[in-house]
From TrEMBL:
Family as reported in the entry's similarity comment: In the C-terminal section; belongs to the PPC synthetase family.
Lineage summary: Bacteria, Bacillati, Actinomycetota, Actinomycetes, Micrococcales
UniProt key word Glycoprotein: no
Job of this protein: Catalyzes two sequential steps in the biosynthesis of coenzyme A. In the first step cysteine is conjugated to 4'-phosphopantothenate to form 4-phosphopantothenoylcysteine. In the second step the latter compound is decarboxylated to form 4'-phosphopantotheine.
Gene Ontology terms describing biological process: coenzyme A biosynthetic process; pantothenate catabolic process
Entry annotated with the keyword Metal-binding: yes
Protein name: Coenzyme A biosynthesis bifunctional protein CoaBC
Cofactor: FMN; Mg(2+)
Region (Phosphopantothenate--cysteine ligase): 11-227
């Protein structure tokens, strides 16, 4: 049986990938399946935490025993996480949040112009960086864990990207993983480096998404008990 080292803790996890609508039938999305975030929610639950899972378009089954909030767009995810983060001990931003959304959402399905074979230009606007907003707001007593999915092949540069990202967003921990066409998303295994607040490596994890989840939570538990 698991050690209940998160008993009495409230953990919020975002998982999946946002979808930004263009019209009633189309969206801009990404390849995040939600597996790693769901694995973290499940692992936190097993370890005794009370877990809120903010789920954006999951391709995996909802985990049992979590308070589930379903969202689709970045703006919906932002509202849900802001509300859930109040008084939380830990917020894990595992969701892949779209950096941009269409400037306007067409009420009718966008049609191609039958009179021309020209392309179509979409105008996009920036979404808020939700993790950075949380990181730069007062968040005493709430440990913030971010993720970075990068395609950088060089391990050293990957680590530097992760460190820079942790600092820019003012997260307490940042889990970096290299993704590509065949790894990271939708797979059952993952390899993650957890960067600590002093830029040191808190953990190097690889294995199933469940074992990576527990490895990340081991770092979280040690930070909570030293706070
Ligand atoms: O900047 P990048 O998208 O690589 O950062 C990834 C981290 O930031 C993840 O933890 C993700 O959930 C979060 N993020 C966010 N809001 C955005 C983009 C990313 O909270 N608009």
């Amino acid at each position: 049986s698991p050690v209940l080292d998160l008993a009495g803790r409230r953990v919020v996890v975002t998982a999946g990938g946002t979808r930004e609508p263009l019209d009633p039938v189309r969206f801009l999305g990404n390849r995040s399946s939600g597996k790693q975030g769901v694995a973290i929610a499940e692992a936190a639950r097993e370890r005794g935490a009370s877990v809120t899972l903010i789920a954006a378009n999951l391709e995996v089954a909802d985990p049992a025993g979590c308070d589930l909030r379903t969202v689709s767009t970045a703006l919906e995810l932002r509202d849900a996480v802001r509300e859930a983060a109040v008084g939380a001990d830990v917020v894990v931003m595992a969701a892949a949040v779209a950096d941009y959304r269409p400037a306007t959402v067409s009420e009718a399905k966008i049609k191609k112009d039958p009179g021309s074979d020209e392309g179509l230009t979409l105008e996009l606007v920036r979404n808020p960086d939700i993790l950075a907003e949380l990181g730069h707001a007062a968040h005493d007593g709430t440990l913030l864990v971010g993720f970075a999915a990068e395609t950088e092949p060089d391990a050293g540069r990957l680590l530097e990207l992760g460190r820079a990202k942790r600092r820019a967003k003012n997260a307490d921990l940042l889990a970096v993983n290299r993704v590509g066409w065949a790894s990271g998303f939708a797979t059952d295994d993952n390899a993650v480096t957890v960067i600590d607040g002093d830029d040191t490596i808190a953990a190097e994890l690889h294995g199933t998404k469940s074992s990576v989840a527990h490895g990340i939570l081991n770092v979280v538990v040690s930070k909570l008990s030293s706070a």
